[in-house]
Structures are given as structure tokens and as C-alpha cells.
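Design job #97: recover the sequence.
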């Protein structure tokens, strides 16, 4: 008698391709073969009830003994972006962010009063105002904010008026010193 024939049903979840997509009829004891191709920036996990082995983009089922399924689940590849901030300021969010491959992410960098911010790390990116935007993420990386004390402002002369015997000079006080200096 001829060996029984079973249905091997393929299924796709997410962004990718499984070929052939139709049900394959396979004789008992034989295997089914599929080509599995994730979409850009995605990885694949193969499951279902047939069992089998993924080698590169080639998936071969175990020997078929009953009707079964092959399910290719495609998920975005993500990388951990780890922020940190030194003393005298904050970075927000301040927890690890899982970012899809090729995407960027932003952080708010806030120096304490009297401090300036700079940002480095392995992600690369640009600080504009208080917003830091990473380059496209291609691996796990870090964003490190550091804060430096601003130099004191030098007084600047506003007006000088010559009088009979005295000269009146007024200055604009430094930003970090609110005491006004006048009439020397």
C-alpha cells in the first residue's frame, strides 16, 4: 500500500516571506522544504507542529508523521540604547531604550542652573538645544551626558558719563551674580 499523505501548512506572522506559501502534501516519513526571508531589520523564529531545522534561509521539517504547521514569526531587530548622566544635570528617559534597527531615538538633556551640557557615547548623534537625537541605531550603544560649570560672565560697561570731577560707570552684573555694581 502507498504511504499516507499529510498536509504541511505554512503560516507567516510579521514582516517576512515564507515560500512556498501553499499547503504542501508530503508522504509519511518525508520532509518539507521552505525558504524563509525576513524583511529588512527583522529576525525570524520558526515554530509550529512539524519541527525542523533552519539553516540560513532554508527550513527543512522533521520527517512528517501527521498533518502539521510551519509558522515563521518575524520580529523587528532591536538594540539596547543605554543613557547615563554625570553630576549636575539629567537625561530623560534615563532607562535603557530598546530601539528598532535603523531607527533613531531622542533624549532630553537638562543641565542644572549654571552648567552646560555635552553628549557623547557610542550611538553618535546631535544635541540641539536640550534635545539629543541619536544616529540610526545599528548595534547596542550608549548615550552619555556630561555637565560643565559655565564660566562666570565678565562685567560689561553699559554707560560712562564724565562729570566735573568724577566718572560714573555702571556695569551689568554677571548672570550667576545678581548683585549690581554701580557708581564707582
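Job complete. Output follows.
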Amino acid at each position: 500500500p502507498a504511504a499516507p499523505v499529510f498536509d504541511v501548512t505554512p503560516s507567516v506572522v510579521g514582516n517576512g516571506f515564507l515560500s512556498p506559501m501553499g499547503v504542501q502534501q508530503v508522504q509519511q516519513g518525508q520532509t518539507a522544504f521552505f525558504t524563509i526571508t525576513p524583511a529588512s531589520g527583522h529576525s525570524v523564529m520558526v515554530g509550529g507542529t512539524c519541527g525542523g531545522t533552519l539553516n540560513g534561509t532554508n527550513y527543512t521539517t522533521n520527517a512528517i508523521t501527521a498533518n502539521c504547521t510551519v509558522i515563521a514569526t518575524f520580529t523587528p531587530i532591536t538594540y539596547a540604547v543605554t543613557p547615563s548622566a554625570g553630576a549636575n544635570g539629567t537625561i530623560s528617559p534615563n532607562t535603557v531604550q530598546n530601539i528598532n534597527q535603523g531607527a533613531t531615538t531622542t533624549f532630553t538633556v537638562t543641565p542644572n542652573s549654571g552648567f552646560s551640557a555635552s553628549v557623547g557615547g557610542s550611538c553618535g548623534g546631535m544635541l540641539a538645544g536640550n534635545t539629543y537625537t541619536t544616529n540610526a541605531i545599528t548595534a547596542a550603544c550608549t548615550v552619555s551626558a556630561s555637565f560643565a560649570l559655565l564660566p562666570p560672565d565678565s562685567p560689561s560697561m553699559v554707560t560712562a558719563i564724565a562729570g566735573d570731577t568724577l566718572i560714573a560707570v555702571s556695569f551689568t552684573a554677571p548672570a550667576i551674580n545678581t548683585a549690581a555694581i554701580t557708581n564707582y
